[in-house]
Specification:
By secondary structure, the chain is mainly β. It contains three helices and eleven strands, in the order E-E-E-E-E-H-E-E-E-H-H-E-E-E. The strands form two sheets. Strands 2-1-6-5-9-8-7-11 form an eight-stranded mixed beta sheet. A three-stranded antiparallel beta sheet has the order 4-3-10, with no helix packed on it.
């Protein structure tokens, strides 16, 4: 079964991510306590565990997932790689707005990581909140592809 493995928020931009067990998600502000939630196209970023592992394998380093600076780490489901796809995380519905493009910050984390995250949307997806609610580690994750 696919699930939400972990949650992280950035209370301030460019500051370390903080791991949390559960979080409220709103259409207006994204994740409670996350500085990026006001940006409607990038309210929530989702990283897929298998993609992260493949990138870490490429750079031969076991890096903590939160170094990617994503909000959700999900496992057991493939990255939809499609704008308009919807992710149901517990009661919350997210819509993919774009690929999360790896930036120069990833090179500071580990040399070669930016390049390792570039193929096949390995860096994850950016989403806007369509339906808010509360999510917690272990919540089921489902993907609905657009027609």
């Amino acid at each position: 079964m696919s699930s939400l493995k972990a949650i992280a928020v950035a209370p301030q931009l460019m500051q370390p991510m903080e791991l949390v067990a559960a979080v409220d998600v709103t259409v207006e502000a994204g994740l409670t306590g996350d500085a990026r939630g006001q940006n409607t196209g990038r309210q929530v970023t989702v990283l897929f565990e298998e993609d992260w592992q493949a990138a870490c394998d490429d750079v031969r380093s076991a890096l903590p997932w939160e170094r990617r600076r994503a909000n959700f780490l999900v496992n057991g489901v493939d990255n939809p790689k499609k704008v308009g796809a919807r992710l149901r995380v517990g009661e919350v519905v997210l819509e993919v707005t774009e690929e999360t493009k790896p930036c120069q910050l990833m090179e500071r984390v580990q040399p070669g990581l930016r390049r390792a995250l570039e193929p096949h949307w390995r860096g994850g997806v950016c989403c806007r909140v369509m339906t808010g609610g509360r999510v917690a580690q272990g919540d089921r994750v489902d993907i609905e592809l657009p027609e």
